[in-house]
Amino acid sequence: MLLSLIQKSKSIMGIGENAIPASPSSPSTVPPLPNDLQSSSDKSPSSMEAHGTTQSEHKEFQELIYDYIRSIKDPEKPATLEDLHVVYEEGVQVKGVTADNVKIVRIEFNPTVPHCSLATLIGLCIRVQLERTVAHTNPFKLDIYIKKGTHNTEEEINKQINDKERIAAAMENPNLRKIVEDCIQDDD
């Protein structure tokens, strides 16, 4: 049953044989951030303060984000994403702040194996968890990526887990939604 659900979720998310082909203009690599949104470590303290944030606020926000994603349960194994080293502190970065004071957050995760069939589901769990717990009090733009070189179809999956329409469609599937809910449920 889990296998058929995975195949159905891949179909909904557009991954695999039935995937919608990328347009020729689509970039095949992770897109760079515009110059005004470069890493906060590249910005001077006065530049960050002009946007109303400081380096310590960025660090606190990174820690907050990590605290929420580290306890997400793996869909297959009885362990958290942190326990399996799928998510790690260095993988959460605040890349900058927009003119509207919206933080740009990039999360990189490392699937357990290069052919992990649940990488898309893990990315979906990360996104849903953060949208429910952080977004309402701290506006941010979230980009989620698989660590470069750690998955056979990382480019396809990166596109899917950052596509709002496909995420919305996936969350309309009651079976997939239940799996996400189970993974992000806090047992504490």
UniProtKB/TrEMBL annotation:
Record has Nucleotide-binding as a keyword: no
GO biological process, one term: protein maturation
InterPro entries, per the entry: FSCA_dom_sf, MIP18, MIP18-like
Residues annotated as domain MIP18 family-like: 65-131
A UniProt-annotated Pfam family: FeS_assembly_P
Transmembrane stretches, start-end: none
Keywords: Chromosome partition
Region feature (Disordered): 17-57
Similarity comment: Belongs to the MIP18 family.
PANTHER family: CYTOSOLIC IRON-SULFUR ASSEMBLY COMPONENT 2A, CYTOSOLIC IRON-SULFUR ASSEMBLY COMPONENT 2B-RELATED
Protein name: MIP18 family protein galla-1
Source organism per UniProt: Thrips palmi
Gene: LOC117648561
